[in-house]
Amino acid sequence: MTITTTLRRLQAAGACKPLYEHLKEALGPIGPNDPINALQILEYNGVVDLEWFLNSSACIENPKPALAEYKRITDSAWTEYKRITDSAWTEHNRITDSAWTEHNRIMDSARAEYQRIEDPAWATILKN
Question: What does the alpha-carbon distance between residue 29 and residue 75 come to, in Å, rounded to a whole number?
């Protein structure tokens, strides 16, 4: 199934002006009622605009079956992405927490040594 629209339908549905103009420019010479394939919207304007288009009134054909399939695929992809990134962030935090603890331990020691040297130096300077 091919889902199409036209420039006129996109305007009537309230397409964002800058992205509408970008699509119009990317398509080249096209009339206001010439068909535009949903894949062209994806190619030139990206996923966010495609999602807007499929949920708008600009579609000529019924987009519900395609939207349902898109949602089915993206939902499982997001679930897998979240599963992977959650474990990666857990490992990242485990490593960085211990690294920050060690960093702070060393910096505290360095600051104390700096203070130990700086205080008498300032005392000498201010005395003179």
Answer: 37
Q: What residues have CB less than 8 Å from 6, skipping those under 6 apart?
A: 32, 33, 34, 35, 36, 60
Cα 33 → chain centroid: 33
Residue entry with tokens 């959650």: 86
Q: For 22, list phi and psi in degrees, rounded to 5.
A: -60, -45
| pLDDT higher than 80, residue 128 | no
Instruction: Give the model's pLDDT for residue 44.
Output: 97
Looking at residue 24, its amino acid is: K
Residue 39 has what DSSP assignment?
H
Residue 17: the pLDDT is 94
The DSSP output letter for 13 is T
